[in-house]
Amino acid sequence: MLCRATKRVISIRGRSIIRPIKDSALHMKKAEFEDRLERLHELGNELSLAKSVEGLCRSAVRLGRKRLGFDRLSTWFVDQADKDFIIGSFGVDEKGRVRQETGERVAIDEDPAMRQIRLNRARSVLRHGVPLRDDSGAVVGRGSHIIAAIWNGKEVIGYICTDNLLRKRPLAGEDREIAEFFASTFGHLYSLKKAEESLRAAYNKLEGVQEQLIQSAKAEVVGTLASGVAHEVKNPLAIMLQGIDYLSRNTEKRNEKAAMTLKRMRGAVKKANGIINGLLDFSVFAELKLTTRDLSSVIKSSLVLVKHEIDRNRIKITEDFGGELPPVRIDRGRIEQVLVNVFLNAIDQMPKGGILTIRTYAVHPPKNRGTVVAEIKDTGPGIAKNILDRVFDPFFTTRRSSGGTGLGLTIAKNIMDRHGGSIKIENVTRRGAKVTLKFKSTIEGRR
Ligand SMILES: Nc1ncnc2c1ncn2[C@@H]1O[C@H](COP(=O)(O)OP(=O)(O)OP(=O)(O)O)[C@@H](O)[C@H]1O
Ligand SMILES: [Mg+2]
């Protein structure tokens, strides 16, 4: 590669004469080139540690300048939606600062050098005395310019551009070769990071799906159990309740011990009955009675149902109902059940008072096709990390001693799933937990 530069053309009194480059100068150039190649190798190793595609592009521009001695440097990628265009990534501004240039989009054919590369006539092009432009396309000076193709091993996926606007050092053939190597190293790393990112995204999605599958498998097990056992248990319980009522009527009022025992028995039977009813909610036969509703008004009516508990614990309520929401198709009774479960959980965590914040809003396209969201936030202690992924499990409770059955969130999730919605619970940064309920709206939101 370097032997091309062993001779140079000089002009004496208008005549061109070819003279060999002196050995020592040649040696220096060669050593310098080899040094840059060595630095390029190290740079490749460093760039391979980038955590994301964006991080890689930013570091490539920053370190390309610092380690390889490039002046202004920028990276562009072929627009995959329309391959006649390229989109900016990161670049160096007219003051030498690295900036994001993702908003830039240019037609490839506007630049003759890029067109030449695109037609497979070159891997890089070096030009002298050309207009140098800023990111908006305005001419900011004249000088040398190199464009090198970013390859992924199969095709050109973008371009690395560098010029000498800032330092004015003329660009030579060696710079072009370094730019070519750099673009090729960068191209391979870019493809690798892209693949890594999509693999990570696919993995996360898969994990989510797996989690959902586990949850619905659990719900199915509970459902099967419910329909099998509940009816069997429900009848004996009804008989017991009738018996307790009969004995209560026929026991002398003065017999306080007997009255107390019967009262406890009634409480216990009612609790068992409550659990059975909860289990029956999983039954496929428990069909939803869907009507079109305004979610905020359903929340308000559910709050009334827990007003007593709220007042007893001296809890303050902050409401932020986001204007007029698109209507939702829900089984009002079931959604009230979900909300009451969530409210009671929050209230339970604030026995000495706190704030219950309820917020509703609509998420519009293009982000989400008509979703209505309700967030319920408390100022309790939050959920311990080690139980966070178990709170939706059937019968999981940390309140067993105070009467918790651990079915509240399981049932809430089952109801939300059957509405085609979702329920999520997480800790909030400072204090407390937040439950997010998402519903599909019946009409698409406006942009
Ligand atoms: N807002 C919250 N803050 C902290 N922990 C919570 C909150 N909501 C739920 N949890 C935790 O999740 C567990 C499961 O909740 P879930 O509603 O399913 O059952 P439970 O409230 O214990 O009993 P019940 O069947 O009576 O509802 C709770 O025991 C509690 O540990
Ligand atoms: Mg509960």
What's the helix and strand layout?
Blueprint: E1 7-12, E2 15-20, H1 23-47, H2 53-68, E3 72-78, E4 85-92, E5 98-100, E6 105-107, H3 112-118, E7 124-133, E8 139-151, E9 156-163, H4 173-250, H5 256-280, E10 291-293, H6 295-305, H7 307-312, E11 315-321, E12 328-330, H8 332-348, E13 354-363, E14 371-377, H9 408-418, E15 422-427, E16 433-440
Parallel strand pairs: 11-13
Antiparallel strand pairs: 1-2, 3-4, 3-9, 4-5, 4-6, 7-8, 8-9, 10-12, 13-14, 14-16, 15-16
Helix pairs in contact: 1-2, 1-4, 2-4, 4-5, 6-8, 8-9
Adenosine-5'-triphosphate (ATP) binds next to helix 8 and helix 9.
Question: How is this structure best described in words?
Answer:
The chain is an alpha+beta fold. It has three domains: 22-197, Beta-Lactamase (2-Layer Sandwich); 213-280, Helix Hairpins; 291-440, 2-Layer Sandwich (Heat Shock Protein 90), CATH 3.30.565.10. 44% of the residues lie in helices and 24% in strands. It is built from nine helices and 16 strands. α2 (53-68) runs antiparallel to α4. The longest helix is centred in the middle third of the chain and has 78 residues, at 173-250. 27% of the residues are buried. The model is unreliable at 1-6 (pLDDT under 50).
